[in-house]
């Protein structure tokens, strides 16, 4: 949810990069990390893991005595269980059924969060069904005469998103997706696909200042987007391209990517959907994708970026700790585990890992 703003509506009538420190503009957030090389180009550390995880961080419930080492080891254990179980061909149809269900749950959570409506799995499944011949014929004939209503736009949104992750994520667990594909051009491609028929100039960077619709937080200046995106994705390829990358580092790297991408806010609309898909791509070696981040809050991205600040690494450690929220974990198990997989524990690891990233949002 963003709104376009003109320069006259900015504080003091100045653009964010003209104001000292860029307070509230997304520019000041980078002030402690920006350096320039000999050619005058941007050289900043966006993706790093040098922030500590506190023994009793803010996200833990007061009665939870487990430490982060225990939680991380549990996730690794369930990863091994999932990998070994998938190798069993007798479970092929079960895994296929889970993947289909997982994708539908992802659509349900994602679209419900962005559209501020309550959906059901049945309704999502209905939206994914191909329309009959008569409906398709009428839609094509009268497309220019009929203004799309809310329900048809919602259906298009669901179908676009579904087609995207069918296109980029194979129907297997823990795939090793090529990191060389992770470029700003890839982000633009995803935006074109999710914005097909919905977003004007889909796949193009915005050329206007925008701010959160319900908050006085201005995203990055449009003239800085191209360079920042190039550098952000270059650093991601470097960090996630390491063959010995471990879970702990991957979580922290993913946290950094998500925060910086949303601060840059490269597109006029659809940034949240693109960010989630890109993060899922980066973490595909470690969890079931697409990775859910929904916690039932509106404007979670602007709230997250505003509170994270990204002004010092100590702030980043607190706001992006990204470790377990026990409430989220329990809710996920209640929604999926008890209903569909009561006798199967293989996916608890995936649910835990999904909750890790949700933890960064839930308490704001």
From TrEMBL:
Specify where the region named Disordered lies, as residue ranges: 1-30
Extract the Gene3D superfamilies matched here.
Answer: Fido-like domain
Does the keyword section mention NAD? no
Show the stretches that span the lipid bilayer.
250-268, 288-305
Keyword terms of this UniProt record:
Membrane, Transmembrane, Transmembrane helix
Coiled-coil annotated spans: none
Q: Name all Fido domain ranges.
A: 182-326
Pfam family membership, one? Fic
Q: Decide whether keyword Membrane is in the record.
A: yes
Query: Which residues are named in the active-site annotation?
Result: 265
Q: Which InterPro entries match?
A: Fido, Fido-like_dom_sf, Fido_containing
Q: Cite the PROSITE patterns for this sequence.
A: FIDO (PS51459)
Instruction: Specify the protein name.
Output: 3007_t:CDS:1
Organism encoding this protein: Ambispora leptoticha
């Amino acid at each position: 949810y963003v709104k376009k703003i003109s320069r006259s509506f900015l504080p003091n009538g100045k653009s964010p990069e003209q104001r000292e420190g860029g307070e509230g503009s997304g520019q000041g957030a980078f002030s402690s990390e920006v350096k320039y090389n000999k050619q005058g180009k941007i050289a900043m550390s966006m993706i790093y893991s040098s922030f500590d995880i506190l023994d009793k961080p803010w996200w833990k419930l007061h009665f939870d005595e487990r430490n982060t080492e225990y939680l991380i080891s549990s996730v690794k254990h369930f990863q091994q269980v999932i990998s070994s179980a998938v190798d069993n061909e007798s479970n092929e149809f079960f895994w296929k059924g889970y993947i289909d269900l997982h994708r539908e749950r992802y659509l349900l959570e994602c679209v419900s969060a962005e559209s501020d409506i309550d959906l059901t799995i049945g309704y999502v499944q209905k939206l994914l069904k191909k329309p009959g011949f008569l409906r398709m014929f009428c839609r094509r004939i009268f497309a220019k005469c009929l203004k799309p209503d809310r329900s048809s736009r919602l259906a298009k949104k669901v179908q676009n998103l579904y087609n995207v992750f069918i296109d980029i994520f194979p129907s297997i667990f823990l795939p090793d997706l090529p990191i060389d594909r992770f470029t700003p051009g890839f982000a633009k491609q995803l935006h074109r696909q999710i914005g097909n028929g919905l977003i004007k100039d889909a796949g193009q960077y915005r050329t206007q200042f925008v701010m959160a619709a319900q908050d006085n937080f201005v995203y990055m200046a449009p003239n800085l987007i191209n360079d920042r995106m190039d550098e952000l994705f270059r650093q991601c390829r470097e960090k996630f391209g390491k063959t010995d990358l471990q879970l702990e580092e991957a979580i922290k790297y993913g946290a950094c990517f998500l925060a910086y991408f949303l601060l840059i806010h490269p597109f006029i609309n659809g940034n949240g959907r693109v960010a989630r898909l890109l993060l899922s791509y980066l973490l595909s070696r470690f969890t079931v994708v697409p990775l859910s981040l929904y916690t039932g809050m509106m404007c979670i991205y602007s709230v997250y970026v505003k509170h994270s600040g990204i002004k010092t690494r100590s702030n980043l450690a607190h706001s992006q700790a990204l470790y377990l929220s026990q409430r989220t974990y329990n809710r996920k198990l209640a929604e999926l585990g008890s209903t569909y997989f009561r006798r199967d524990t293989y996916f608890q690891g995936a649910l835990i890992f999904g909750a890790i990233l949700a933890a960064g949002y839930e308490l704001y």
